Amino acid sequence: MxxxxxxxxxxxxxxxxxxxxxxxxxxxxxxxxxxxxxxxxAITAGAExxxxxxxxxxxxxxxxxxxxxxxxxVALLDHPKMLLATILVANNFINIAIVxxxxxxxxxxxxxxxxxxxxxxxxxxxxxxxxxxxxxxLPKVYATQNNLRMALFSAPALKILMRVFNPISRMLVSSTTxxxxxxxxxxxxxxxxxxxxxAIELTVGHTATREEVNIFKGILxxxxxxxxxxxxxxxxxxxxNYEMTFPEVQAHCIEVGYSRLPVYKESLDKIxxxxxxxxxxxxxxxxxxxxxxxxxxxxxxxxxxxxxxxxHEFQQKRIHLAVVVDEFGGTSGIVTLEDIMEEIIGEIKDxxxxxxxxxxxxxxxxxxFEGKTLINDVCRVIGIPSDTxxxxxxxxxxxxxxxxxxxxxxxxxxxxVSFEEYEFTVLAIDKMRIQRVxxxxxxxxxxxx
Length: 449
What we know:
By secondary structure, the chain is α+β, with helices and mostly antiparallel strands. The protein has four domains: 11-183, no CATH class; 188-222, no CATH class; 226-345, CBS-domain, CATH 3.10.580.10; 359-448, Uridine Diphospho-n-acetylenolpyruvylglucosamine Reductase, domain 3. 52% of the residues lie in helices and 14% in strands. The chain is built from 17 helices and twelve strands. It has helices at 11-19, 24-51, 56-64, 68-77, 80-109, 116-145, 147-164, 166-183, 193-204, 210-222, 227-230, 246-256, 307-317, 337-345, 375-382, 399-407, 444-448; strands spanning 232-233, 240-241, 260-265, 267-276, 300-302, 321-325, 331-336, 359-363, 366-370, 416-419, 422-429, 434-441. The strands form three sheets. Strands 8-9-12-11-10 form a five-stranded antiparallel sheet. The chain has a four-stranded mixed sheet with strand order 1-7-6-5. The protein has a three-stranded mixed sheet with strand order 2-3-4. Strand 6 and strand 7 (331-336) form a beta hairpin. The longest helix has 30 residues, at 80-109.
């Protein structure tokens, strides 16, 4: 090895001297290291674009998946600042490693007769080309078009990187929070749903009817409602047993009065299809008609499916009813096109609906509801925000389930359960199911007195 010139040397000369000791096998190792680093920087760069371009629909879709990568992705999204800090720190460390490794490799491959300036230029060009093409352009273009796929693919790697760089990322996040606090920035571009509703009341409330204002509010909330929140629960589903005879089927259809009914084998968890009662018309006089030939395929949706997407699918497939299933494939209930439309335009009454079936308004502070009434419908009738009970409702969707969540036990008849300014009095119970509930809003007792 040549001696180091007196007066010191620059970094390029040191790398050239070190490179002369590198064997061909070491060159192969360096190339493999560079390729691995380029893959890592592509993952981090693509992940940054993918995770921060996910919409609410995409995040809700991830929550419905049971794969480990989906759970990792949801956990990462719960801490967006830490996620961004980890991506940026890891990307910088990887890029620095690529620069150093590429510098050593290029110094080994180029001729020793090339000047130091030309060697430096070649190294800059090579490193810039690699980082820009494979570390920025390609992964970000791919992530833009396939953000969900990229988010799932990169989740395990990001989980590891978050643990490795946790001290540095935490320090950066803390520093950022401290600086934001010192700057006293009070700018808040986020507008809550309550702000939008208030704006609707101010802008159109004096020129539109109450029904029109409610339609505006329904449109505002429409994109965040899931099938589970509006479905008819399985306890209220009237299905047809596959073993029924045709006369029994006709009698049951006349009794319930629905135009579409699910057909099941053994239990509602085994849906065999759907039947349209209009298909019976040509065969009403045939007692031994093989009605199973009229069974149509059922359409299944997950209970966390957004009704905005479900409405679009109803339009495309020209169907009016879907079977809602839980994560284990069991039947949770059914949801119809009418249920979806009612979230925008309000309750739709037809000649078969009973006028006061779901609730009765005693006065502005007291209401009586059926226990099966959905929490969203209760909030809409009372005139309160739909997320009023969000922190206490747990997994419940009906008023009866909400009472069970609040009380922590099965209440007795005439027992009152309180939450904030709301009092729920159980009026009727049938077979361990809350049938009727009185809701009182605080302030009514004082007014009555």
